[in-house]
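Re: beginner question about structure tokens

> Can someone show what the tokenized structure looks like for a real chain? I only ever see the sequence side.

Sure, here's an example I had lying around. Input first:
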Amino acid sequence: MKKERYEMKYTQYDFLDELPLAVYPQENWIVSNRDIPYLHCHNALEIAYWVEGEGNFRIEGKEYTLRAGDICVICPKTMHHSFIGKGIISRCKYLYIDLVRFMEMFPIPIDGIEYLRYHSPEFVNIIRQEDSPELVPLILDIFFEIEKKPLHYQSSVLSRMGLLLIGILRQQESVLENRGEWHKENFMIADSLDYMDGHYAEDISTEMLAHSCHMSQTNYRRVFGKIMGTSPMMYLNRIRIEKACEKLFSTTDTIADIAGKVGYTSISAFNNNFKRFMNCSPQQWRKVARLNRK
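And the corresponding structure tokens:
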């Protein structure tokens, strides 16, 4: 089988000063129908509302078809892209939410919101309009409030964001109810996920991560693989490569310097891992990402 190739593109989101939200752009995006789509991930929770036409999302190797009215939810650090067939016109609206900042700003705790911070094989990415028709008006209201900025729009947007996230969590309810032990285990490894995100440049071992979760290495590897669909070290490498992409895009640091700043002591290990995740070398990725910069 021929290996699928992707155009590599990095998008840097600038969140609003007054809200944990980014809207790019406020008008509808026309979804790409190029033969070579792009693959990317980011730190925000992405909520895509399919406005017109039909198209596809590929999320962590799984492909989904969306029609007008459907919603796609993509957790942070989840590799994905959207695409459509030739001759088809499709449009989307996109919201990007900084979940950590949202949890700091929202006055009422939302039970289970941490579940939206990490992708898992069981996550329900696609919400059909007929299954949750109340979510689309919330999304459209958020766009309206951000664009028009009526009196107290910040409070209005924040409250609608809370209702939107609650609605998304309710779509995960069948998974959480049927996999109660899985849900419990998800939070057992949450501390180690946060640790990797904050300390990716340091020397991290599976033993250290397991200890932070008060688990044996064997049990930690088992639970981690069950929840995240990959090994702890593979997940850590993906965080490091994601951080490397940010630095390749936004700085003039050398490849060797960036490798060291994201936790690699060997440039060859960095290059090999980068190619594994991004299907090209760091030099090639930097060139393409800057050419596509908006």
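Each token stands for a local structural state, so reading them left to right follows the chain. The chain has a mean pLDDT of 84.
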